[in-house]
Design a protein that fits this description.
The chain is an alpha+beta fold. The protein has a single domain, classed as 2-Layer Sandwich (Alpha-Beta Plaits). The chain is about 35% helix and about 30% strand. The chain has a four-stranded antiparallel beta sheet with strand order 2-3-1-4, covered by helices on one side. A hairpin with a 5-residue loop joins β2 and β3 (about 55-65). The longest helix has 18 residues, at about 70-85.
Length: about 90
């Protein structure tokens, strides 16, 4: 993934939404991945919401990043987790 640095002003708050099946253990995986790239992140700010049908969940976070490498690392690790487990359907 290549970021157009002219569109970013670091440091900044970076919102992420991760979606997957309701039964997938997403929250612990997201906590681990986010803390790897932003050790100061407060995991108590993670929001988990179930779909109306109860088949899917979405996790919303707003993480403070100081450089583009953190953003790239987050997306890389989330993609790797998806490949390894299939627990992530979408990352926005």
């Amino acid at each position: 993934m290549k970021l157009d640095e002219s569109l970013w002003e670091f440091p900044c708050q970076f919102p992420l939404k991760i979606m997957g099946p309701a039964e997938a253990p997403l929250r612990p995986a997201v906590e681990t991945i986010v803390l790897r790239h932003a050790p100061e992140f407060d995991i108590s700010t993670i929001s988990v919401r179930m779909s109306r049908t109860g088949k899917h969940q979405s996790i919303s976070i707003d993480v403070y990043v100081e450089r583009k490498e953190q953003v790239l690392g987050l997306y890389t690790d989330l993609a790797k987790h998806q490949e390894e487990t299939g627990h992530i359907s979408v990352v926005l």
